[in-house]
Amino acid sequence: MQHALWQSVLGEIELSISHAAFTTWFKNTELIDNSNNVVTIAVPNIFAKRQFEVKFNDQIRAVLEKNGISPERITYTVRTTGKKTVSREIITTRETSVDELLAPVSPQERQASSSTMGVSGLNPRYTFSNFIVGSSNDLAYTACQAVAANPGTKYNPLFLYGGVGLGKTHLMQAVGNEIATNDPSARILYISSETFVKEFLESIRFKKKGFSDKYRNVDVLIVDDMQFIAGKEKTQEEFFHTFNALHQTNKQIIISSDKPPKSIPTLTERLRSRFEWGMSIDIQMPDFETRCAIVETKASLSGIELGRETIEYLANNIKTNVRELEGALNQLLAYAEMRGVTPDISTAEGLIGNVRHSRPQHVTPKQIIDKTARHFQIETKEICSPKRDKHIVVPRQIAMYLLRSELHLSFPKIAGELGRKDHTTAIHSVEKIEKAIKLDFMIREQVAEIREKLYA
Ligand code: ADP
Ligand code: MG
Q1: 149-192, pLDDT tens digit by residue?
Q2: Buried b / exposed e along 98-114 (16+ C-beta atoms within 10 A)
Q3: Could you identify the atom of ligand 1 that is nearest to the CA of residue 170?
Q4: Superfamily grouping for domain 2-78
Q5: What is the pLDDT of residues 19-31, one digit of tens each?
Q6: Is 240 helix (H, G, I), strand (E, B) or coil?
Q7: Which of 11, 192, 271, 424 could bridge 224 with an S-S bond, Cβ 3.0-4.6 Å?
Q8: Closest residue (by CA) to atom 6 of ligand 1?
Q9: Which among 33, 42, 39, 26 has a CA at the least distance from the CA of 84?
């Protein structure tokens, strides 16, 4: 009875607010009591509770009254994760409940998931149910769900783009996992474009057979971080044929990139136009409320209830991307556990303040130059010499880039550190590496590795 009532309330509310808001806030809610003139609604976390009290209370009251119920008070109570309170009817896809997420993984399951991962590249950790929807990713989420429900028919290819750490991989993987659940016989392959490039080059170099077949004999091909195919003409040509073979037979193709097809540099025209055939959607950084919901939900998945001001502090201070937000939260939880303190706002302030200010302080220009030289197994004096050999030039450019990015040195100063008089070389070097990092994953990895060594 109460269940039916709540379903009808939800039905009306769904029509009056954005889809994003509805999925973010009304998923996992339930009317659990209606007696003594008080209606009690269970919500999944304290952040939702506050949203309901300040934002949705009047609306819920109005809809209840329409249904002949005029309580004196509506209260919102946080249901902890132990009980199953999920009202599944409002969820369009199969949900993993919090219980399931928290349950220890059995050895069989672990084996099953790692073997799926081996073959398909899918990671069961990424699902629709643990993806928080807000206005920044609502369209992408909806399109991904549509593709998961009817692969190969709608939005083909589906092209997701946006900056790092905003959930592209998560959503594409969720599509793959969902299709695999609905149809265990579906052949799904997830790869990064880097892997595609690497395997393609190996197949040519070592005359390996089977490369084309591997990618053309699938029902769903998911290619992550397509930007790394930029500038690689032969690989693009191969991918073009793969694309056509799949598309002609109504196989689903899902692609992600950091930019829309038209902005990926040196992408051949014909591949670009293929990418624009289907649907391209961008993902942005979630707004403040969604960031709060992400922090709140992720903390409660770890069994921790964070105070509202702590949640808001994290959401307010980490606006770069969701991965960093998640990282800051994990750091806070780990630190609090290790020290046996509460993960509250003052702990968070201490930690985040530290992360922000500590880095450049203990690194010197000399360390950057030495570590870069050592990383490439050359001598420091070579990197600082006028030599133009390629195996010295690139490390030198990377050292210059790091002097700029880590220490914000001026260009004349950078030139000076490397024994150069002319600072235009420093400008060119820094620009060159900045560009290379975007296009060339080898360079990007080298730089990341040196950075890690600097702060180790
Ligand atoms: P991208 O591929 O765009 O760089 P990822 O998909 O790897 O980003 O996301 C980075 C991290 O943030 C992942 O751990 C992912 O699960 C998480 N994440 C991103 N967006 C969301 C979201 N809306 N809800 C929950 N987790 C998210
Ligand atoms: Mg990614």
Answers
A1: 999 998 999 999 999 999 999 999 999 999 999 999 999 999 99
A2: beeeeeeeeeeeeeebe
A3: 6
A4: DnaA, N-terminal domain (3.30.300.180)
A5: 767 777 887 899 9
A6: helix
A7: 192
A8: 167
A9: 42
- Please state the length of the chain: 456
| Residues with Cβ–ion distance below 5 A, ligand 2 | 168-169
- Nearest one of 327, 307, 305 to 317, comparing CA atoms: 327
First to last CA, the chain: 60
What residues contact 114, with CB distance under 8 A and at least 6 apart?
Answer: none
Q: Can you tell me the distance from the alpha carbon of 402 to that of 397, in angstroms, rounded to the nearest whole number?
A: 9
Q: Which CATH architecture has domain 365-455?
A: Orthogonal Bundle (1.10)
Name the residue among 236, 226, 119 with its Cα closest to residue 176.
119
* 126 CA: nearest ligand 1 atom: 16
Distance in angstroms (rounded) separating the CA atoms of residues 279 and 158 = 5
Angstrom distance (rounded) from CA 41 to CA 78: 9
Q: What topology is assigned to 288-355 in CATH?
A: Helicase, Ruva Protein; domain 3 (1.10.8)
Class of the CATH-defined domain 107-282: alpha beta
